[in-house]
Design a protein that fits this description.
With 190 residues, this protein is of the alpha+beta class. The chain contains 4 helices and 5 strands. Strands 3-4-5 form a 3-stranded antiparallel sheet, with helices on one face. The protein has a two-stranded antiparallel ribbon with strand order 1-2.
Length: 190
């Protein structure tokens, strides 16, 4: 009996070989004797003992390579899927925040709220939870890390086109640049 881990790895390797219809016996029948470790004079296998059932170093190394490759592939796929999930969650949260900014503007328009005039600014701002605005460029701006989040929000109004553009940015590991951005626009009717 040998090492149980080694025996299991060898068993897995042999199972893979059998399942892929590779039969070692037919391989050995077709293989020249010098490749099988026998001498050309008809002697026995080099370094083998009668009745020995051990594995060669090649079989062991092959099984280690196969198992290592399978583990590396599984870890790589798992890491990729985790990054995709994190990126999707971040984008979903950013969309919710950006939609909230646009909804406040839309509600002010629908309800003829005088606060709409304060929203018509061509300087970047964000709308806080109480409906007031805060400048993005101000020192210690509340627009960066809005409501304690990792997102920075900016709303800009274009008087010429009557379009509000809300932009949310955040640091992301999912994109190659490290920063993602989401924009939504709302045009005033009329």
């Amino acid at each position: 009996m040998g090492d149980p881990t080694l025996e299991k790895a060898t068993h897995i390797t042999r199972t893979v070989l059998v399942k892929s219809h590779v039969k070692l016996s037919s391989f050995y029948k077709k293989t020249p004797c010098f490749l099988q470790g026998r001498s050309l004079m008809g002697g026995s296998k080099v370094g083998s003992h009668r009745g020995s059932r051990g594995d060669t170093i090649i079989e062991v190394m092959l099984s280690i390579v196969l198992i290592g490759s399978a583990v590396a592939l599984a870890v790589s796929m798992s890491n990729h899927n985790l990054n995709i999930g994190i990126g999707t969650t971040q984008r979903s949260q950013a969309l919710s925040i950006t939609q909230g900014q646009i909804e406040r503007i839309r509600n002010a328009y629908i309800n003829n709220d005088p606060v709409l005039n304060s929203y018509k600014s061509n300087q970047p701002y964000c709308i806080l939870g109480d409906g007031s605005t805060a400048e993005v460029d101000a020192q210690d701006s509340k627009c960066a890390g809005l409501n304690g989040s990792q997102y920075t929000v900016s709303v800009v109004y274009s008087d010429a086109t009557k379009i509000f553009t809300a932009t949310t940015t955040w640091i992301s590991n999912a994109s190659g640049s490290g920063q993602d951005e989401l924009k939504l626009s709302y045009k005033l009717p009329g």
